[in-house]
Amino acid sequence: MALVSRTILVNGSPEEVFDLTQDYSVRTAWDPFPERYALRSPSGSPEPGAEVHIRAKNGHEMTVRYVSFNRPRAAAMAMVSGPWFLEEFAGTWQFKPAADGQTEVTFKYRIVPKPHWLAWFLRPLLTHSFARHSERRLEGLKRYAAVHLGLLRQA
Is 23 in a helix, a strand, or coil? Predict the structure, then answer.
């Protein structure tokens, strides 16, 4: 098992930043990882039990299910199906108020590679890859929030 955790400060309230991260109509505007998202939910909104299909720009696909949705504090997902090299995957977004109208955003992944006999080799590669993607995603969120939340406040 590998654990990856990255944190960044983002301009905006926890409610605003949480909403940006869970709004799939704007997600590809700031998130550099996916090619596309497809939310599957009876209500049309993220909620426990809702599923999201992700196609990454690298061609890998994964379907995750929301296991928790606690606006504006946290959202958590677990993999339903994914690429050949992942036995298990789970991710959480956490949001905490910070000074000067900012929000501390923490993105955590739990990764279990497969096959098990190759885990010694895959674990460091996956840890590095997921850490790099997490950093890029959080930086994209920070840039997007700085522009778009600022514009909303001026309107």
Answer: coil
> At 146, is the secondary structure helix, strand, or coil?
helix
Q: To 10 degrees, what angle do helices 14-22 and 119-154 make?
A: 120
CATH of the domain at 74: 3.30.530.20
Cα–Cα distance measured from residue 91 to residue 107, given in angstroms and rounded to the nearest whole number: 7
Domain that holds residue 96: 2-154
With CA atoms as reference, report the closest residue to 137 among 4, 3, 1: 4
Structural domain count of the chain: 1
Burial class (CB in 10 A: 0-12, 13-18, 19+), 33: middle
pLDDT tens track for 28-52: 999 999 999 999 999 999 999 999 9
Distance from C-alpha of 148 to C-alpha of 36, rounded to nearest angstrom: 21
Give the residue ranges of the chain where pLDDT is below 70.
150-155
**pTM score, two decimals?**
0.92
Give the pairing type, strands 34-40 and 51-56: antiparallel
